């Protein structure tokens, strides 16, 4: 019944602590979106702009997660499908930006990439630590964890790209990292959508069982 009507009071997603963690994550990601987008445009860095869009997508992810807290499994799974589509869409956009910059040519500012990338890494590590205890659960909680984990990986890749640009004198490392971001988004969206579809089937089956049980009791 908890799966159909709402999570139990002891489930992690129903706790005030988890709600506070999501609010912190939402604010951190919203601020870092603005910081990285401005820095990425100034530095002409594909990886920084891609990472900033990732921050924006994650802020939306956390907002949706907050909106469905306390709802039943079916609604949480539907929200996860929306987030999966958003994540995959982000991957397509980043892939397009990467290919565009590859064709037109660009040379990003490595020091700016390194400084802002390191700041973003610290921000995402702090959020990751807060979410560590909530990494297991339904597709909604899984999507939050996957996005944050991908952010940390992406930030490390931005730092490597900055070193690569500085050492090679070319934009190729920056473009490669843009491709990595696209892959992580597309694969993460697929994983979330697959689990969410399974949860939707489970919710429908439980609803049918309850309907049959209610009919037989009369």
TrEMBL record:
InterPro entries in UniProt: Cation_efflux_TM, Cation_efflux_TMD_sf, CDF/SLC30A
- Return the protein name: Cation efflux family protein
| Organismal lineage | Bacteria, Pseudomonadati, Pseudomonadota, Gammaproteobacteria, Oceanospirillales
According to its UniProt record, where is this protein mainly located? membrane
Cross-referenced Pfam families: Cation_efflux (PF01545)
Q: Does the keyword Hydrolase apply?
A: no
Where does the record say this protein resides?
Answer: Membrane
| Segments traversing the membrane | 21-39, 59-77, 84-104, 110-131, 152-169, 175-193
PANTHER family registered for this protein in UniProt? CATION EFFLUX PROTEIN/ ZINC TRANSPORTER, RE54080P-RELATED
What is a GO molecular function of this protein? Answer: zinc ion transmembrane transporter activity
Q: Which organism is it from?
A: Chromohalobacter marismortui
Q: Which UniProt keywords apply?
A: Ion transport, Membrane, Transmembrane, Transmembrane helix, Transport, Zinc, Zinc transport
Query: Does the keyword Transport belong to this entry?
Result: yes
Membrane topology label: Multi-pass membrane protein
A GO cellular-component term linked to this record? plasma membrane
The record places domain Cation efflux protein transmembrane at 22-199
